[in-house]
Design a protein that fits this description.
This protein is mainly alpha-helical and 239 residues long. The protein is 67% helix and 4% strand. The protein is globular and about 60 Å long. The relative contact order is 0.12.
């Protein structure tokens, strides 16, 4: 099997980068499950390359926090932990309401129309992959309305990481229209120029997402109450 280039790769992309992008995509989509042990030799055979570009790809995945390097025994896909869930959603809670507030100041009529067009996509039943992509486009579009390139970059990165959490936690189709009302209310607030209301809606949305993800991960047996208690205690004491 030759190296399967992801949409981000081109014919001129180095082999190690193409392997990195392909494996990263599989990890983020939970096609390679959290906790899976990866063998460099097997991956090299899969992509018909030497071990060197595989090791380079693994170093990049380790830098992303997606794999752990195991001394003399290969690599392991990073687990999804209570701490990781909260770190991602803490950043969402910091960035999302700010972006919504700023969008209420700067969004144009064309951008409002774009947001409403994305919201209409929630009218159909969505599997987790489709739902995540619609949510990503919606919230990144709001970030662009904030007129801050760094907010856009952070939003894109956070939704990349959220994809892995959502694909792991959700194994059902989201009902048609399930998220339409809250997203419509958010666009209404942005269009009205009501930044505080837009920020409050986004804050509530992120809080509900946090509660839902923790509950789902507990239901799946992936997080225990003891881990959550320990994690909560560590968060409350802080550095």
């Amino acid at each position: 099997m030759s190296v399967d280039a992801s949409p981000a790769a081109t014919a001129h992309t180095p082999v190690s980068e193409r392997i990195y992008l392909a494996l990263r995509r599989e990890i983020m989509r939970c096609e390679i499950a959290p906790g899976t042990t990866l063998d460099a030799a097997a991956i090299a055979d899969r992509y018909e390359v030497s071990k060197t570009p595989v090791r380079d790809a693994m170093q990049k995945l380790a830098a992303d926090g997606l794999v752990a390097i195991l001394p003399r025994s290969g690599y392991r896909v990073a687990a999804i932990t209570f701490q990781a869930v909260h770190e991602i959603l803490d950043l969402r809670a910091a960035i999302g309401p700010h972006a919504a507030r700023q969008a209420a100041r700067y969004a144009t009529a064309a951008e409002i129309a774009e947001l409403r067009g994305i919201v209409r996509e929630y009218a159909a039943p969505l599997d987790v992959g489709a739902m995540q992509q619609v949510a990503r486009r919606f919230h990144v579009a709001i970030a662009r309305c904030a007129r801050n390139k760094r907010v856009v970059a952070l939003s894109e990165s956070l939704f990349d990481e959220l994809e892995r959490l959502l694909r792991f936690a959700i194994d059902f189709t989201v009902k048609a229209g399930q998220h339409s009302d809250e997203h419509t209310a958010l666009v209404d607030a942005i269009e009205a120029g009501d930044g505080e209301r837009a920020a409050a809606i986004e804050t509530a949305h992120i809080r509900h997402a946090r509660e839902f993800l923790i509950e789902r991960l507990m239901t799946l047996g992936y997080l225990s109450e003891s881990e959550i208690r320990v994690g909560s205690a560590a968060r409350s004491t802080g550095p």
